[in-house]
Design goal:
about 70 residues; mainly alpha; globular; disordered N terminus
Length: about 70
Amino acid sequence: MTEKTKEHTGLDGRHRDKSGRIERKHNNTKVGHLRETYGKGFAPGFADSDNLGAVLQKSGATSLSKYLKMKK
């Protein structure tokens, strides 16, 4: 395992900010960008230009991870 790989193990494509905290997706993240990660079926009924905040508000979820768990 390389140093770079070891650094990102278990982060699911996320990264740590300067304080070491794992960064979360923000409510202003575009649905189109999230579809690149979670597939074309992510957030059906929403346009690529819509924000994660709108998806969460309509679904009643408080975070992306909770939304993803609801949709399983």
